[in-house]
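Running low. Got one?
___
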Amino acid sequence: MGSRKQANYTRIGSHLLFWLAYILYQAVNDGWKNKDEFSFILPSQFLTDVPVAIFLAYVNLYVLMPAFYYNRSYLKYIPLLLILLMAGGLMERYFTYRIWIPLDKFNDPLAWQTENREFWIPVRILRNAAEIFPVIAATTLAKLMRNSYQHERALREIERGKFNAEMNLLKAQINPHFFFNTLNSLYALTLAGSNKASGMVLRLSELMRYMLYEASGNKVLLKSEITHLENYISIEQMRFADRLDLSFRYSGDIEGKSIAPLLLLPFIENAFKHGIGDNAGWVTIDLKVTGCRLFLNVENSYNHNPVKPPQTTGLGLNNVKRRLKLIYPSQYELGINNSDGIFVIELKLNL
C-alpha cells in the first residue's frame, strides 16, 4: 500500500514538473525580446492555452494510447492524434476569438484595429496545432519511458521473487537423512546410557536453530557458518566414533567476512556420506581465508568399486553448484575429482 502511494506521488510530481517546465518555456519564448535582454512575461493567452494543452495531453495519454497505441493499432491512432491536434488548434482559436481579441480593444486599441477579427483563419489554427504538438510528443515520450521503467522493474521483481523462491528451495533440500541418522544414533546412545547423548542433543539443537533462524537471510557471518560446520562435524564424530579418522582445521582472517548460508555444508556432508559408509574411513577438511578469498579443500576416502563408483552428481552437490551459479556468478572455482580411493573437492570463492 505504501509503495502504491509513493508511486502516485511520484507520478503527480513528474506531471507538475513537466507543466512547470512548459510554463517556463512559454514565458521565455514570449519574453525573449533580444539576445541582450531577458524578461519573464507570461502572455495573456497562457491562461487558456495551458489548460487546453493539459486537456489534450491527458486525452492522448489515457484515452488514445490505451485504446489504440498499446494495442498497436497505429493506423487508427495517428489519424485520431491529428484530429486531436486540430481540435486543440480550434479550441485555442476559439478562446482567442471570444476572449483575448475583445480584450485587446481596451488593452491595446491600436493592435485591435489591425487585428484580423475573423474566427476561421486556417493558418492560425494550424499554427496553434503545431505549437501543441511538442507538448503531446514530450508527454508521450515521458509516458513510454515511464512504462518501460515500470515494466523493467516488474521483471526485476519477478526475477527476484523467482531467485528467492529457488534459494529457499535449495536451502530446504539439505539432506534430511542426516537428521534421521542422528536421531537413530541418539536413540542408541540413550539405550546404552552413554554420556555422549546429552552432547549430541546440544549440538543437534544448535544446528537446527542455526538452520531455522540464522540461515534464513541471504548472507551470514563466515564465523557463524564455521561454528555451524563444527556442530555438524561433532555430531558425525559422535555417530561414527572410532570408525572415523577426522582432521578439520581453518585459518586466516574470518572476522567480519560474510557468506551465503549453508553453502559449505553439502561438501562436508558429501565427505561423510561417501567417506565412512559401513566401514572405517577418513575425512580431511581444510578451510583457509586469505583477504577476501576463501579456499576449501575436502578429501575423503572411499571404497574403490569399479562396478559402482561414488556419485559425483548427487542432489547435494547439484544443489550447491546451482547456488554457486546464482549467488556467486564468475566469482568461484570448483573442482571435483576422485581417483585411487580418494575423493577431492576444491572450492575457491570470492567473499
Q: What stands out?
A: Residues 44-168 form one domain. The chain has a mean pLDDT of 76. The first helix runs from residue 2 to 31. The chain has two domains: 44-168, 173-350.
